[in-house]
Amino acid sequence: MIFQKSLIFYLFSLTVISISCTQLVEKNIEKELYANESSLFKEIDSTDIIIDKLVKSLITNSNVEQKLTEFGKNNPENIVVMFTKFGKLKFTLYNSSPLHRANFVLLSKRKFYDNTLFYRIINNFMIQGGNSDNFEINSKMNEIGTYWIPNEISSSRFHKKGALAMAVSTEEQRFGKKSSAINFYIIEGRKMNSSYFKSKEKEGKKFTNKQKEIYTNKGGAPHLDGDYTVFGELISGFSTLSKISKLKTDKYDWPVKDFYIDSIRAY
Predict the structure, then answer these.
(1) Which of 37, 116, 206, 239 has its CA 20 to 30 A from that of 63?
(2) Dist. CA 186–CA 224, nearest whole Å
């Protein structure tokens, strides 16, 4: 009888201990799940904050003027140098086209143009870079934003030899002439004669005496004036420009052999 009571007490004790252990394990699991859940929510909140900051930092068509104006105030550089295997192209950027200047400095500082192509070359006219048709460039733009730059066209900044300007899409030529954020071109051009100006003036085009003098003696592409924003000019590296402009191209004006911009730096 005593043995039976002892056995019963023993089994009862085991049951109590088992229940206690189970409750303890359940509490520990609950604590761990709660801790993991809290950690997960913290990570989600942190990720949301990061994403929110990234989204707010992007340049869009609705905030482009504000963003570029703010960047321009904090980044006053107006000298940029393009490095290529043919040599350097050194430009001064105009403060009178502040949005375009700020944008080009921004892209240069973000190393956007490093190892990109001059993808369109027409001898005696211009060379063009900034192509957005490959994955790497699109990936870079996803980190900066998608936008057009409001035009800053001025008759005082024209397409003389060495002019630096931004491309404008066919659609934008009809609606506001806003510039591409990335596609730029440099004028090689050719010299004009007096008969050119006479014929254009008959069509209603107007040229200042200064424009006529520069287009006659140094050359350029006056037919582009009034349709694109010129925001800088070449100050050294004209021989490099001429070498690039003479590269052999296919029927689409794409160089037969890829020609890269090694880098662009702002100073």
Answers:
(1) 116
(2) 12
Q: Helix, strand, or coil here: 254?
A: coil
Kindly list the distances between the CA atom of residue 224 and the CA atoms of 72, 90, 187, 205, 233, in Å, as whole numbers in the listed order. 27, 22, 10, 11, 15
| Residue 218 DSSP symbol | T
The stretches of 58-166 forming alpha helices (DSSP H) are 64-74, 98-109, 135-144
On whether both 83 and 113 belong to a single domain, the answer is yes
User: How far apart, in whole angstroms, are the C-alpha atoms of residue 225 and residue 158?
Assistant: 6
Q: pLDDT tens, 66-102?
A: 999 999 999 999 999 999 999 999 999 999 999 999 9
State whether 130 and 179 are in the same domain.
Answer: yes
Contacts of 177 (CB under 8 A, 6+ apart): 151, 153, 168, 227, 228, 229
What's residue 169's pLDDT? 95
pLDDT (mean) for 192-199: 95
95 shares its domain with 220: yes
- Is 0.70 topped by the overall pTM? yes
Together in a domain, 117 and 89: yes
Looking at the fold, whether 107 and 170 belong to one and the same domain comes out as yes
Cα 74–chain centre separation: 18
Confidence of residue 131 (pLDDT cuts 50, 70, 90): confident
Domain count, the chain: 2
Query: Same structural domain for residues 185 and 240?
Result: yes
Indicate the residue among 57, 80, 101 that finishes a domain: 57
The domain in which residue 70 lies consists of: 64-266
Residue 256 pLDDT exceeds 70 = yes
